[in-house]
Amino acid sequence: MQNGFNRRSLMLGAAALPVGAVPAFAQQVTITGAGATFPRPVYERWGQSAREALGITLNYQSIGSGGGINQITNRTVDFGATDAPRTAAQLTEANLIQFPTVMGSVVLIVNLPGVADNTLKLTSDLLADIFAGRITRWNDAKLVEANREIRLPNLPVSPVYRADASGTTFVFTTYLSRVSESWRAGPGAATSVQWPVGNGARGNEGVSNTVRNTPGAISYTENAYATVNRLVTTQLRNKSGRFVKPEMPTFLAAAALADWNRPGFAADLVDLSGDDVWPIVSPTFILLPTNPVADRVVGSRNTMRFFDWTMRTGADAARRLEYIPLPENVQARVRASWSAVRDPSGAAITFA
Amino acid sequence: MSDTTHAPASPPAMRRTIGSTGDTIFEWLCRGAGLFVLLLLGAIILTLFIGGLPAFREFGVQFIWSSDWNPVEGRESYGALVPILGTIITSILAIMLGVPVAFGIAFFLTELAPPWLRQPIGTAIELLAAVPSIIFGMWGLFVLVPFVQTYIQLPFGETLGALPLIGGIFESNNFAGTSIFAASMVLAIMILPFIAATMRDVFNQVPPVYKESAYGLGATRWEVMTGVVLPYTRISVVGGIMLGLGRALGETMAVTFVIGNANRLAGSLFDPSTTIASVVAMEFPESLMGSLKQSSLLALGFLLFFISFVVLAVSRWLLRSRLK
User: Fold this and answer.
1) Distance from first CA to last CA of chain A, Å, rounded?
2) Any idea what the Cα angle at residue B181 is, between residues B176 and B187, rounded to 5°?
3) Interfacial A residues in 151-170 facing B (CB < 8 Å)
4) Cβ of A292 under 8 Å from any chain B Cβ?
5) pTM, 2 dp
6) In a domain, B241, yes or no
7) Is residue B269 part of a domain?
């Protein structure tokens, strides 16, 4: 107590510090989003650039499309992300608008010792048989017949699927339902189905990991995960009967045929006809509330600012990760659709 | 002095002393705490039951033995058989794998270990209990699953798979390694510390005079253990095992990582399956409020409560002669 520098004044001084430090970070805003693991690589890349360029920090939780839909319906996040598009009725009921950000491709990944990247040839029938459990070994006669140039090992087939509700599953099972009558009558197409055989893993990340650790495994995942984790992918026979490789030219060929006039921009890019078309491509969507409450208006505005910026400047980053950016005319229509987002007073929220 | 010939018939009446307000408040606080626990438990059970009622109404009693789990809109059908069986089988297997090892550890620590070794090993066991379960899940996925895949599944399948009736449970086409067996192993390691620590503590509490009398009569270490120590400590040993079983029944994260998440009936120990806790953890975040799926998951939670209650009741019945 002799000098003024006692414990109490030290504590008061320490308590005063953070208060003074806050204003320096005031211009950093955070937007929160949750949903699909499908576009996570490109959203994270965009988020990193946006921190310096826009002052917006993106907090994206890749919990799967089902989780994203749930969170945005409950308004616990600023935006939801899903690959399974919502119908017009579902969007109106939940007061949401839906717009696409990029298009991505679902590829097949395998772990077969001795089989190189993009050499295994699969037809849609073989794929449906594998995931339905009708083909159980890799040197099955049907597989060997389609792959005479390579040597298939004598391993059991271990299909791996997404255990969580996933838009990637939705896209893949939509494809299987289109090419296989028995699949359509059986498990069907949804974000989560009852898989006849195989193991489940959580997220595109979990699936990639499981395939990497299991010889004889086959699964479906978004292309970026296959590239980043250096997993072996396969060729697929498209509707025109040609075997195509999962590469940018085939993805772009599919994207060029997109019909964006469906409600909620839900273009259907699965199993299209075309010589060089990759059969499993899908846009991925963002869900935004049309009626944010007062303290959520800032979040909605910044979300629109973020995605406006990504449409203008994020195409290169997307292409580097082998996603397909939206064409210019679709971008203009997406911006126009944002006028449906209203603040509590009824005015449209500007994002410029 | 006639009082000394009478045995006290009832406890002496409580005396109200001056300044007992603090005592009264404390007494009511304690009563409140006890009541609060009861109310909380009742509230949880009620919430689960009410939340699960739509599922029970939709599927009826079939819910309990249906092995469907079809979430596709338009043909939704949920059944609890696979999660229930998975929970029960992994827990029982975990007990079968873990209790002998825990007993061995307790036996070693109380009888065989030199005194300088007892403290470090005891601490190591307690540290094992403190490891978070998600670490066990990660370790299980990256270390145990490949180990089971290469060194256990193949040899077991080839040798024990040839047995006439039960061979089928050792053979499996599932080579991802994530299976009921892997989950049981992880659970066994997780419940080991509780059971071992409980056993060690109660073994140490056996009065030395009993053990020394037995040794004096010429009994071997094993005979002392089975004839003197175990009967004396039976209640606490069973209590410790039930504690471990309770943890195994409800364990979520560690199991989700290594069990393979397959909502299908498993035909073999090495097939993937799922448990109640695992399926709820995996599918609850994405189930919409009020949907049939969420209701089914809440119904599963209620069934897990019911299973735990049955386990507890069985353990009390096993000890009924000892607990007066």
Assistant:
1) 58
2) 120
3) 155-156, 158, 160, 163-165
4) no
5) 0.85
6) yes
7) yes
